Amino acid sequence: SGISSPSTVWMSHGDSVVKVPTDFIVLGSTQQVQFGAVVNLKKNMYGIQFHPEVTHTEKGSTLLLNFATQICNLPIKPKKIDIETITAQIKERVGDSLVIGAFSGGTDSVVAGALVARAIGKQFKPFYVDNGLMRDDTLQRIKTLFPKLLGLPIEIISAENEFLKEKQLEINIS
Predict the structure, then answer these.
(1) Sheet holding 45-48, edge to edge
(2) C-alpha closest to that of 7 among 71, 47, 66, 62
(3) What pTM was estimated for this model as a whole?
């Protein structure tokens, strides 16, 4: 509902289902992913591998909303968030203390950090640990956007060597 066909979706070719039950039929695959889409018609079960939550997937939010409301029958009610009350609660709880906050580079940590920064200002010390495993543009976005969003500088902790030196990752993409 509300999604035109065809529609572009983003799929990780590094993640794969390697085996499906014998009563499933393969509907779609790629050169790297054998079981991209499967179905069990008798049980009315479907499986599809892609990422509806990423910006590259057109209408991903619509698809997730359809799944939650039309398939799972969940009542989704928009919730109004009172930012003033939230920031007042943070300020009261923190008092004169300092707060550190780690950022992952994703929306959740940015929203949480923005609320804390708004509530306590320079008492908030945001940081990001660069592990060398995020998307190529993540570090640059954090350096340029986060200080603007937070109104505070963000400390970047460069830890790629610590994360990557101990073990070589062996990835089987077949």
Answers:
(1) 25-28, 37-40, 45-48
(2) 62
(3) 0.57
